[in-house]
Amino acid sequence: MTAENVSPHPDNGSAPIAVIAGASGFIGRSLMTPLNSWGYHVRTIGQAASSGTHVSWDDPEEIAALIDGADLLINFAGRSVGCRYNDRNRQGIWDSRVMTTRVLNDAVRTASSPPRLWINSSTATIYRHAMDQPQTEDDGDIGEGFSVDVAKGWEREFFQGELPRTRRVAIRMAIVLGDGAALNMLATAARFGAGGPQLEGRWFGHTRYRGIGPDASGPKVWHRHPLSHGRQRFSWVHIDDVVRAIRFIDEHEELTGPINVSSPGVSDNTTLMASLRRAVRMPLGIPAPRWLLEIGMLVLRQESELVLKSRWVLPKRLEQAGFDFTWTDIRAATKSLLR
User: Fold this and answer.
1) Which long-range contacts (CB under 8 A, 24 or more apart) does 139-144 make?
2) Across the 339 residues of the chain, what is the mean pLDDT of every consecutive 10-residue run?
3) Among 234, 222, 199, which residue's Cα sits nearest to residue 310?
4) Strands 267-268, 233-234: parallel, antiparallel or unpaired by DSSP?
5) What are the distances in angstroms from CA 16 to CA 214, 271, 324?
């Protein structure tokens, strides 16, 4: 995973090409204008029906041609996890991440002039439910179950094989706050008075969170986390800091491998929901015990894992390299995004 010592922006008489896979998504859209301002000529890979997409996932030969000669490749492809984890959706979540990354890996490996840098999306959900200590790239404990197996399969395809001329960075992102589904769903709950903490508790067993993939891990029936009383950790990152971190990684050739992109200002569920209530000016926030939460999530076609799993992730490698997060206070971040 060591790249050749090449200039970040070679002086070849024209703007270097940045290829974004999954550019129609929330984070991909947020990167388009910044990449242009950084001097890149942006090209995109996406679904055939996506407006403005240059190359479709249905045409691997065109993908290979687009990537050959590109300076930067960024992959944010992956269908939303905002759904119920039935068999069809589980497989769609897996394929949209693992199989698309495999296509890109094949293209980079066969390119005569491969990208200098390949940044691939991953997720901080790869770590276990953590209430006792933070998880970093160096000493974090990998969890188990469906979401973790997807993350492991994603990164396995990304780091597969030797690519000596391409530096690879997997960004393990915490929940991104911006104009995306996660914040909008929680803010809507707060606006309607349901913005109290979400409380772990007893519930019926089910198999939706069971492992997936060739190395499927975890129990066949979802295990209950210990009672957290609304103090399950909430790791998050502001969309502005995601964009800034990508530029920072672009400019720092020493950064390779998995990188946590998560604000050092880790919050918890109770503080998060109080911040959302304050941002939307709703004084009332009814707590949601597990049984009530599960009923609500069934209606919304979502999963309770989003708010019940304790995510305690710190960006050790980014901070050691000198990156400063602009947004470290959950109250200020939610207020700015929901004003």
Assistant:
1) 140/313, 144/211, 144/217, 144/218, 144/219
2) 39 80 92 96 85 86 97 96 95 97 98 98 97 97 95 98 98 94 91 94 89 79 75 97 98 98 98 96 94 93 94 98 98 94
3) 234
4) antiparallel
5) 38, 43, 27
- Of the candidates 139, 151, 59, 147, which has an alpha carbon nearest to the alpha carbon of residue 107? 59
Q: Which domains does the chain have, with CATH numbers?
A: 17-338 (3.40.50.720)
Place of tokens 């759904």: 83
Structure tokens at 274: 């109080």
Cβ neighbours of residue 225 under 8 Å, at least 6 residues apart? 129, 200, 232, 308, 309, 310
Distances (CA, A) of 110 to 58, 76, 103, 324: 18, 21, 11, 37
Nearest alpha carbon to residue 168 among 78, 126, 108: 108
Yes or no: say if 240 and 326 are a contact pair by the CB < 8 Å rule.
yes
The pLDDT tens digits for 115-168 are 999 999 999 999 999 999 999 999 999 999 999 999 999 999 999 999 999 999
- pTM for the model stands at 0.92
